């Protein structure tokens, strides 16, 4: 049996950032990950919009400065369009911030985090290992790996994604609401300069977002019913590019596909309790939201930041695995997670409704919000983590 102060199961963005945030702590950390990240040959189709608050977090743990600036694009403005003429515009300049967020590839962040992990003195990596059994005793959590190794620690963190093995093994319930939709992602080169503007359309067939990439490139996320998503992915490259360009009103001219489309199922996932004695969940293991807000990984980074801050502040005499200690982390994260889950789910259902009565009302709401600078500023600053 190998003894640690903390075991993290899952080395994705949330789990890896938690470990790196604890690089200067007194804690002895074990991180278990089956498949470490790898950089694709071209552009990664999995793109995230990182809020300024989380860019600050990544900078504080020494990762942001190592990101290749040629693969990073700031968002200077955002244009939102309803399905019946409603519109809403956000501008970094008008809001008084340098930018509204930063677009970059998932694998770029993941690989930089792992470079930090490899140099971390208080961390032992268990790479290529799968967890086999989990036991919670009064004084420690015990994790047995498939190769027979047994790890023990006062606290185990589950950071192993939406289908979390840790969450299931611990008996923590997850309430899933399937949308009957998939998110179609792909990258394109554009005829016109995007000027670092992000676009989002609420359409009859779903929600389409165009996110600026460096140069004349964009990444898209099209949340659409399952059959429509499958049909989009089955189109030849040229026809798919034309379909996406038409859906966006050709605002950037002609599009050319540079990464093949991929689709993933969408669901809302609520986890009533993200802590238990000797256990805490971070990232997608503890929540899932619709991608229309772009906040999925931002929530995960804030989970990691909050838990790391509490572990760093704990005295050497404190038992970091006690439920009383972990409930402070849960209380701190519950409001933001619930608010964003509820807001994105309500927006998605509101715009997905075929009711002819709702269409003018929801578009009127967009227009009214656009005419109220104080409300707009509040919404943007909340999204950016500035309030």
Number of helices: 11
The percentage helix is: 25-40%
| Strand fraction | 25-35%
Coarse structural class: alpha/beta
Total strands: the figure is 21
Head-to-tail CA distance between termini: 45 Å
- Biggest sheet, strands in spatial order? 7-6-15-16-17-14-18-21
Q: Tell me about the biggest sheet?
A: 8 strands, mixed
Indicate the mean pLDDT: 88
The radius of gyration computed from the alpha-carbon positions, rounded to a whole number of angstroms, is 21 Å
Short descriptors:
six-stranded mixed sheet; eight-stranded mixed sheet; single chain; 21 strands; 387 residues; alpha/beta
Task: Walk me through this protein's architecture.
It contains 11 helices and 21 strands. The chain has helices spanning about 15-20, 50-60, 90-95, 105-120, 165-170, 225-235, 235-245, 295-315, 325-350, 360-370, 375-385; strands at about 1-5, 5-10, 30-35, 45-50, 75, 75-80, 85-90, 100-105, 125, 130-135, 140-145, 150-155, 155-160, 175-190, 195-205, 205-215, 215-225, 255-270, 275, 280, 285-290. A hairpin with a 2-residue loop joins strand 15 (about 195-205) and strand 16. Helix 1 (about 15-20) runs parallel beside helix 4, helix 1 (about 15-20) packs parallel to helix 8 and helix 8 runs antiparallel to helix 9. The radius of gyration is 21 Å and the shape is globular.
């Amino acid at each position: 049996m190998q003894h640690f102060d903390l075991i993290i199961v899952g080395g994705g963005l949330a789990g890896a950032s938690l470990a790196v945030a604890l690089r200067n702590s007194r804690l002895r950390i074990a991180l278990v990950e089956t498949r470490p990240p790898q950089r694709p040959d071209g552009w990664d189709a999995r793109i995230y919009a990182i809020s300024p608050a989380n860019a600050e977090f990544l900078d504080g743990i020494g990762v942001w400065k190592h990101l290749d600036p040629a693969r990073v694009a700031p968002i200077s403005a955002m244009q939102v369009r309803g399905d019946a003429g409603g519109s809403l515009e956000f501008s970094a300049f008008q809001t008084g911030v340098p930018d509204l967020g930063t677009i970059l590839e998932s694998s770029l962040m993941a690989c930089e985090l792992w470079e930090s992990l490899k140099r971390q003195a208080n961390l032992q990596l268990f790479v290529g290992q799968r967890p086999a059994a989990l036991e919670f005793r009064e004084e420690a959590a015990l994790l047995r790996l498939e190769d027979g190794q047994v790890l023990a620690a006062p606290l185990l963190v589950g950071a192993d994604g939406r289908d979390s093995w840790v969450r299931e093994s611990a008996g923590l319930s997850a309430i899933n609401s399937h949308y009957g939709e998939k998110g179609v992602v792909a990258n394109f080169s554009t005829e016109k300069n995007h000027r670092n503007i992000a676009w989002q359309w609420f359409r009859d067939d779903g929600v389409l977002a165009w996110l600026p990439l460096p140069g004349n490139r964009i990444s898209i996320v099209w949340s659409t019913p399952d059959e429509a998503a499958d049909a989009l992915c089955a189109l030849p490259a040229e026809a798919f590019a034309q379909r996406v360009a038409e859906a966006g009103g050709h605002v950037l001219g002609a599009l050319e596909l540079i990464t093949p489309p991929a689709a993933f199922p969408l669901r809302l996932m609520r986890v009533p309790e993200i802590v238990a004695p000797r256990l805490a969940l971070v990232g997608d293991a503890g929540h899932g939201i619709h991608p229309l807000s772009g906040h999925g990984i931002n929530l995960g980074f804030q989970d990691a930041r909050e838990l790391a801050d509490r572990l760093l502040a704990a005295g050497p005499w404190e038992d970091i695995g006690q439920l009383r200690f972990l409930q402070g982390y849960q209380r701190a994260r519950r409001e933001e997670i619930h608010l964003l889950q509820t807001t994105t789910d309500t927006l998605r259902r509101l715009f997905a409704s075929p009711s002819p009565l709702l269409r003018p009302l929801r578009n009127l709401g967009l227009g009214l919000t656009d005419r109220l600078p104080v409300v707009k500023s509040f919404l943007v600053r909340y999204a950016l983590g500035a309030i």
